[in-house]
């Protein structure tokens, strides 16, 4: 045998067994040897031509490549022989050398390898199919939950949460996902409610997986929370409250999912129910408080009424004895009369207050043609009080507007309001000073009536409560209802009552009333 | 962007929700709506801190349900709070005690001192206040930097939120 080309030698080194060989000239066998039977080559005899239809005939006819080799791999040369043969040929001068190498073992290995690869592919395909199925299932599950008004977030291996299917617009808005952003929620940020709860859920899932209780579904629920989301989630213009509750489910297969429930309907029902309870509680609190105040008020009224009554009883007792001279008798009658008037005034105050409390809210006149004229009523009221001022040597001045100023209210009640303020000023005004009643237009819509005195003013500690029921400024003979009546009455007409210390000393009470023309 | 969580705490019907609505949306409704759970709203606030620099903060306002025998506050609500706004109703002095009590629970739950402010709300109804404001403010003490507010008129509302925001940034705790 001639020099074997390197390529063929390399092939031989790899150690195939059952080598057969042939030397051909002009396609006829000139020499043959080796394991001819193993390759099913018994038919190949010296002197016989090589048929053109054998699978390796191309090896034989490859002329002109003396320095190289032609190779055919894993040929089945004889159907009856279980052998795979690699055929190697090279040409040298006019001779063709052919080697037959048994590669059955290699083929078996290859087959096994192929088979394994096929199995792997199959397995991979199946896994991919299963994953696809799982995705489909997840999507279907997500869509099913969405149809029921729930959204799902699934815990991923990286500890984040993702929706298994396209999330509802409200979940997108809730999670703050912008367009094209990954739909991922990082758990644990307590500033955001959902993220904070997902942090709790991660911990809950971890405990559930490592817990001794076995594979049962367990849940952890959040509280209810409400967020202000765009009403039209697409347009994002208006906003509205949307309420949610989340439930973490530790599934029996170790997975963790969080179901988010859109709770507007049930929150509204809970709210309505709780609201009723609390409204009732607030009413009860208010009524209890009112009862307490009324008890105190009643006690104080009785106490105040007893004062004049004691004087009356004293005066009558002295008169009954008949021991008084005419001057003393006159004085006793005067005292009795004064105390009777005082008591009458107190009773009137009390009745006014109670009457005003139960008075219908819209009992006032706001017709610009017939509504009470504040200027006229202030003057008339002041006129009626002038005698009392003379007795105490206090001047009473009416200043300000002179024309008509019609205001929302009722003439008789307005007179009582002004009388209370003037009477209050008189009680505190020192002799020799003046009380001023001033009426002015404040603006196009309101008129202000001020009653100003030069008394000690209202102590700071009671200013805030001044217009409340039964707050007394420390003066004798006041039941503490006059200013309460003033405030309550004018507020029902849409007005207000105010107090401030008067510049230069004294008190300045103001009542601001709506002009009838404006209100109509 | 700096984000800070602030919890509004207090008894029911003291005006927590109204204060948030006034501060965030500049609106007020006379009607009382009880809060279920917690209601979360946000507002971007600009404040000047100690160095005079203008700083932007997103306040995440947790308007927490009023506590009473029907509803209790889960302690998890307080987690991550940078500050607390305690709210009491001037017309119901007992709500002041409740607010102070809730503040104690919240502080324990948070595990550290955080800036707190106390709001005596419903100043528009001051004529109905059982106890005068100065007396209530004295009772609260300076630690809570109490303020009188009215969600109805807006008096003191913006200032209170901004004051707390400044305290959050400067770490000013009682």
TrEMBL record, chain A:
Highest taxon listed in the record's lineage: Bacteria
The enzyme's E.C. designation: 2.7.13.3
The keyword Phosphoprotein is assigned to this record: yes
One Pfam family per UniProt: HATPase_c
Enzyme class (EC, first level): transferase
Classification via InterPro entries: HATPase_C_sf, HATPase_dom, His_kinase_dom, HisK_dim/P_dom, HisK_dim/P_sf, Sig_transdc_His_kin-like_C
Reactions that this protein is recorded to catalyse: ATP + protein L-histidine = ADP + protein N-phospho-L-histidine
Molecular function terms from GO: phosphorelay sensor kinase activity
Coiled coil ranges: none
Histidine kinase domain sequence ranges: 300-517
Keywords: Phosphoprotein, Transferase
PANTHER family: HYBRID SIGNAL TRANSDUCTION HISTIDINE KINASE C, TWO-COMPONENT HISTIDINE KINASE
Protein's name in the database: histidine kinase
Native source species: Saltatorellus ferox
Protein encoded by which gene: phoR_3
TrEMBL record, chain B:
Annotated GO MF terms: GTP binding; GTPase activity
Record's keyword annotation contains Nucleotide-binding: yes
Pfam name, any one: Ras
Source organism, top-level taxon: Bacteria
SUPFAM superfamilies in the cross-refs: P-loop containing nucleoside triphosphate hydrolases
UniProt key word Nucleotide-binding: yes
Coiled-coil stretches: none
Keywords: GTP-binding, Nucleotide-binding
InterPro entries membership: P-loop_NTPase, Rab, Small_GTP-bd, Small_GTPase
NCBIfam families assigned: small_GTP
Record-given protein name: Ras family protein
